């Protein structure tokens, strides 16, 4: 959830502060992702830090893709959301058909289809968060209401974690959680940027993510191979 806020702010930072176009920003993020993949392939077991860097880059790209899909194509939020949901379902069906099994710690295998699904889920979550927030006027009221809705959705999903086995690569609940968390991150990223400024919100959430990862260490579990 922290990574979702940071990634959402990063996605907005590229056009708003760096003044890069949507296409230019996506190309830059694609290059960064390729470097992360190369660095991971050169490591022996995969690196958890590289995984979270990849998550941030993919989350930022999802923000830019969502803006591109809405503003450049002039399609409405409902249409774009439906198309993205159908695309995500197709990607997950392809993953199931490929018979990929989860790794030993129960998390999905991070292959190309995983990252494509993560990008699609992030884009869908961004469109949903922005769509709900923009449909309720004024936007200063709509975004907090969208944030409340997303918070309730995330809480309900996490409350059912044990029963639904969200960590299982074969269940849709993992990806439903990803969409909900990306929606939540979009809303709270916007709120944090409004009160703190975009650079400050991105930096603070990045530091908070780094601190969380430093504290959250589980040596007994194998490291998930990231971006492979």
Largest sheet: none
Count of folded domains: 1
**What are the secondary-structure elements, in order, as H or E?**
HHHHHHHHH
Roughly what fraction of the amino acids lie in strands? under 5%
Mean pLDDT: 87
* General form: globular
Radius of gyration: 17 Å
Map the helices and strands:
Blueprint: H1 2-16, H2 22-42, H3 48-72, H4 77-97, H5 112-135, H6 139-159, H7 161-164, H8 173-196, H9 198-215
Helix pairs in contact: 1-3, 1-8, 1-9, 2-3, 3-5, 4-5, 5-6, 5-8, 6-8, 8-9
For the structure shown, list the relevant keywords.
mainly alpha, single chain, disordered C terminus, 9 helices, 228 residues
Task: Describe the 3D structure.
The protein is mostly helical and 228 residues long. It has one domain. Helix content is 76%, strand content 0%. It has nine helices and no strands. The chain has helices at 2-16, 22-42, 48-72, 77-97, 112-135, 139-159, 161-164, 173-196, 198-215. Helix 1 runs antiparallel to helix 9 (198-215), helix 4 (77-97) runs antiparallel to helix 5 and helix 5 (112-135) crosses helix 6. The longest helix has 25 residues, at 48-72. The protein is globular and about 50 Å long. It starts with a helix and ends in a 13-residue tail after the last helix.
């Amino acid at each position: 959830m922290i990574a979702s806020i940071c990634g959402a702010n990063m996605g907005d930072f590229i056009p708003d502060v760096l003044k890069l176009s949507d296409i230019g920003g996506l190309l830059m993020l694609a290059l960064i992702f390729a470097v992360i993949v190369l660095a991971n392939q050169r490591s022996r077991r995969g690196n958890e830090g590289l995984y979270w860097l990849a998550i941030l880059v993919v989350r930022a790209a999802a923000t830019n893709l969502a803006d591109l899909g809405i503003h450049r194509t002039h399609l409405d939020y409902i249409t774009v959301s439906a198309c993205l949901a159908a695309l995500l379902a197709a990607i997950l069906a392809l993953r199931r058909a490929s018979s990929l099994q989860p790794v030993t710690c129960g998390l999905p295998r991070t292959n190309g289809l995983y990252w494509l699904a993560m990008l699609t889920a992030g884009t869908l979550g961004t469109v949903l968060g922005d769509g709900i927030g923009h449909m309720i006027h004024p936007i200063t009221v709509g975004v907090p209401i969208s944030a409340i809705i997303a918070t309730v959705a995330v809480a309900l999903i996490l409350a059912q974690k044990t029963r639904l086995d969200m960590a299982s690569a074969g269940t849709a609940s993992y990806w439903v959680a990803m969409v909900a968390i990306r929606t939540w991150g979009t809303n709270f990223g916007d709120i944090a940027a409004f009160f703190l400024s975009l650079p400050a919100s991105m930096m603070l959430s990045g530091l908070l993510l780094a601190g969380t990862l430093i504290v959250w260490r589980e040596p007994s579990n194998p490291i998930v191979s990231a971006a492979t």
